[in-house]
Design a protein that fits this description.
alpha+beta; Helix Hairpins; 13 strands; phosphoprotein; membrane
Length: 449
């Protein structure tokens, strides 16, 4: 049962099905051709030897005398074999007068008692051997001529001719199968290229596949894929625009709510004031969440065009923007960067990506520690300390709203998800690692990505 299942699994391949089908068809065709060739050769051999017996009978008839007196040989003569050729015993003839007063036959030919004369072509069996015969009367009607051929004489020639015809076909069989396999594999090369292009395509790449110089079947598949990609892109853009529009529309009422709560803080009732402060904190978190959702929606939309970006300047600008929050925790920055790190890209995307990475480092670094930022050969490394009991799952860091067990730290869980989406848009690579009590973010581009 397992063998049948394994065979069935392999037979699901279109390429294998075509190859097996072509091989079976070729083998069946070769078998049918061999059978047809054998029977056709057999028929032609019989026709050839029948014609030869007719000519031999006519030749013998022309040599016989008309008058009985001219026959000087013994009355009933048997001609002995003159050589040891293997075919001599397979050919025989018998000549006799109508009145049976004279006859002559080769050794091995039956006399008229064992085999009565029969005119025309006939077949008979003597001693379990099949013989072919041809009988005719001479034009003067005085003699009966009977020629005989053993079937093995013809059979050997049939077999030789059939084998000589079929051997090239059988010898070419491996070559034909290999050519079939090679042709089928070559025909599927376009599909393999298409599959490889799909595997290596970015998740946000909805551009259509080119259809030039391709096989008809591949063009049909590409047309269907292009149609599908166009629909997916339209749906994705609509969803992202809806998310962005919804987040944008929420900003105004949230800002108004925040302002109203701040105005209510003037209340002198300590209990009411405490409740309003808690509401204000929740509102502030909601505002940051909406801002993060808006930024995530923008990060997932493909940008067109690029310009030179000085990454070193962008890093220093982000550090300046984060300085106040870092100073409150006693965090310092150790920056080892050249003045210029140029890269052709999108400045706004780099700015947001670096802001999220550095903001994440400031939030999760213990107080009075240092965040180091270094550069080497198209690779930017941002390294910060974390608490010894800091728990995180590296493979889940870029999931939306994932924050590990650090729920006491302010944030929405969208920062590194935004970083990952921006990295895809910028065609760069972002890696996260944990080494002892350090959390490391490496940003690579160019040949390192």
């Amino acid at each position: 049962m397992q063998i049948i299942k394994a065979f069935g699994a392999k037979f699901k391949s279109i390429r294998r099905r075509i190859l097996i089908t072509v091989s079976v068809v070729y083998l069946v065709s070769s078998g049918l051709s061999a059978t047809w060739i054998y029977y056709e050769v057999s028929h032609e051999v019989d026709e050839l030897f029948d014609a030869e017996m007719v000519q031999q009978a006519k030749t013998l008839a022309a040599l016989l005398p008309v008058n009985r007196a001219e026959l000087t040989q013994p009355t009933h003569q048997v001609l002995q074999s003159v050589s040891e050729h293997e075919y001599e015993e397979k050919l025989a003839y018998r000549i006799e007068r109508i009145n049976q007063d004279w006859s002559m036959r080769t050794q091995g030919a039956p006399d008229h008692r064992a085999l009565p004369y029969q005119s025309g072509f006939n077949e008979f069996i003597i001693a379990a051997t099949l013989w072919h015969s041809f009988g005719m009367l001479t034009p003067d009607g005085n003699y009966q001529i009977l020629l005989l051929q053993e079937d093995s004489f013809r059979s050997e020639l049939r077999t030789d001719l059939a084998v000589d015809t079929l051997v090239p076909v059988l010898l070419l069989l491996p070559l034909m199968l290999w050519l079939g396999w090679w042709t089928i594999n070559q025909s599927f090369t376009s599909f393999r290229r298409l599959a490889a292009a799909l595997r290596h395509r970015r998740t946000d790449d909805y551009s259509p596949f080119e259809q030039s110089n391709e096989d008809e079947e591949v063009v049909l598949v590409k047309q269907a894929l292009n149609h599908y990609l166009a629909r997916i892109e339209q749906t994705f853009v609509r969803e992202k625009r809806f998310s962005a529009d919804a987040a944008h529309e929420l900003r105004t009422p949230l800002a108004a709510l925040k302002a109203s709560l701040q105005n209510l803080l003037v209340s002198k009732d300590p209990i009411e004031k405490q409740q309003i402060e808690r509401l204000l904190i929740s509102t502030e978190r909601l505002v940051k969440l909406v801002e993060s959702l808006l930024m995530l929606s923008k990060a997932e939309l493909t940008q067109v065009g690029s310009e030179p970006v000085n990454i070193a300047r962008e890093v220093r600008q982000v550090i300046a923007d984060s300085y106040l929050l870092a100073e409150q925790k006693g965090i310092t920055f150790g920056v080892d960067l050249p003045d210029r790190i140029m890269h052709q890209s999108h400045p706004s995307y780099w700015r947001v990506l670096l802001a999220n990475v550095i903001d994440n480092a400031v939030k999760y670094s213990p107080p009075n520690t240092t965040i180091s930022i270094t550069y080497s050969d198209q690779e930017l490394e941002i390294k910060n300390q974390v608490a010894p009991d800091h728990s995180l799952e590296l493979e889940r860091l870029t999931e939306r709203f994932y924050r590990g067990k650090q729920m006491d730290i302010d944030g929405s869980g969208l920062g590194l998800s935004i970083v990952q989406n921006l990295a895809q848009q910028l065609a760069i690579e972002v890696e996260f690692a944990r080494e002892d009590t350090y959390f490391i973010c490496r940003i690579k581009w160019g040949e390192n990505a």
